[in-house]
Automatic annotation (TrEMBL):
InterPro entries: DHS-like_NAD/FAD-binding_dom, NAD-dep_sirtuin_deacylases, Sirtuin, Sirtuin_cat_small_dom_sf, Sirtuin_class_I, Ssirtuin_cat_dom
Compositional bias segments (type: Basic and acidic residues): 1-12, 348-362
The protein's Enzyme Commission number: 2.3.1.286
Superkingdom of origin: Eukaryota
Protein name per UniProt: NAD-dependent protein deacetylase
A Pfam family the protein falls into: SIR2
Keywords (A to Z) from UniProt: Metal-binding, NAD, Nucleus, Transferase, Zinc
Name of encoding gene: SIRT2
Role this protein plays: NAD-dependent protein deacetylase.
Organism: Sparus aurata
Length: 383
């Protein structure tokens, strides 16, 4: 499946980002764990590429059933999820790369020099109109989270989710109930916006940006009149520092990695699958297999290096289906299916109810404004 609802990302390597001191943990045990994991990562990289060592096999079988049995065993306490646009397509958000239906295949109306230009920072600064026209079509708040989003929320509720790493900028993880500490929005988010001027950088919230976008205004800073851009990562920009600082703490402690709805083609996000321990099981739920790196690329540290089919396969499971169907199947095996379906039903009903209240409030406000405007001339006439 193509990476959908995720934006193009910076091609810069993690070494180019210097984490700020205040974002580093003061816990010495965490620092030691991170250091040990860096060595473990290199050791695993060489041993897996060269066929050395005897990896521990955690799963009884390389199937969805095997993963479910592992979760039910109680040995699995720190699950990491890595998600891409495939988890949002059933909400109605198109992906980027699918032939014919992806966003890149349907941008002709914006008269771009090439499709990716709409997400390049230099082009945006000169021609912001295409991006904001597209933003009106895809703006957060117009879509409801999917079964897959709520499955991740269920993992959180059951105390099993350590963190969700998302390539998506649609904010549906937040709508589903994941909070700031539960979530690493690797490619940024619409949740906040900033003035693009380095001398200003004033921050604006989601409501401010929404008002600008849906009034057909190009968002300009109230203080310096420069462009204001949602905090999503364009080509030519660095990934958030928190992405790099968190992954060094999270992936060494992961005891199950669930990858959903991403083609694992873009670095450095794709390389995260290689940062878990050598024995950590990895489950891919996707419409096609992904992350199977060439041995040479694996040696260089690129790609996922997942192995589903070889004689040496011992921990990677590919469940080929839509993300929603895969999550329902796993939930069924775990005995959670009814709970998941009820959660989706209740939350969608709540979102619909809030949407109706918001529209009613907007209608009353517009009516009051129109009434006031029509009454003004009469008042003036009486005077």
């Amino acid at each position: 499946m193509s990476d959908a609802s995720e934006l193009p990302k910076s091609e810069k390597e993690e070494e180019e980002v210097t984490p700020e001191p205040e974002e580093q943990s003061d816990d010495s045990s965490e620092e030691e764990a991170a250091g040990a994991t860096e060595m473990d990562f290199l050791r695993n990289l060489f041993s897996s590429t060269l066929g050395l060592g005897s990896p521990d096999k955690v799963l009884d079988e390389l199937t969805l059933e095997g993963v479910a049995q592992y979760i039910k065993s109680g040995k699995c306490k720190n699950i990491l999820c890595m998600v891409g646009a495939g988890i949002s397509t059933s909400a109605g958000i198109p992906d980027f790369r699918s032939p014919g239906t992806g966003l890149y295949a349907n941008l002709q109306k914006y008269n771009l020099p090439y499709p990716e230009a709409i997400f390049q920072i230099d082009y945006f600064k000169k021609h912001p109109e295409p991006f904001f026209a597209l933003a009106r079509e895809l703006y957060p708040g117009q879509f409801k989270p999917t079964v897959c989003h709520y499955f991740i929320k269920l993992l959180k509720d059951k105390g099993l989710l350590r963190r969700c790493y998302s390539q998506n900028i649609d904010t549906l993880e937040r709508v589903a109930g994941l909070e700031g500490d539960d979530l690493i929005e690797a490619h940024g988010t619409f949740y906040t916006s900033h003035c693009v001027s380095f001398c200003c950088r004033t921050e604006y919230n989601l409501d401010w940006m929404k008002e600008k976008i849906f009034s057909d205004d190009i968002p300009k800073c109230d203080k310096c009149n420069s462009l204001v851009k949602p905090d999503i990562v364009f080509f030519g920009e660095n990934l958030p520092v928190r992405f790099f600082t968190s992954m060094k703490m999270d992936f060494p402690r992961c005891d199950l990695l669930i990858v959903m709805g991403t083609s694992l083609q873009v670095q450095p996000f794709a390389g995260l699958v290689g940062r878990v321990s050598k024995s950590c099981p990895r489950l891919l739920i996707n419409m096609e297999k992904a992350g199977q790196a060439d041995p040479l690329l694996g040696l260089l540290g690129f790609g996922g290096g997942m192995d589903f089919d070889s004689d040496k396969a011992y921990r990677d499971v590919a469940h080929i289906s839509t993300c929603d169907d895969g999550c329902l199947a796993l939930a069924d095996l775990l005995g959670w299916k009814a709970e998941l379906e009820e959660l989706v039903k209740q939350e969608h009903a709540r979102i619909d109810s809030e949407g109706k209240k918001e529209k009613s409030s907007e209608s009353k406000g517009a009516a009051a404004k129109a009434s006031s405007a029509s009454a003004a001339p009469e008042t003036k006439k009486e005077e």
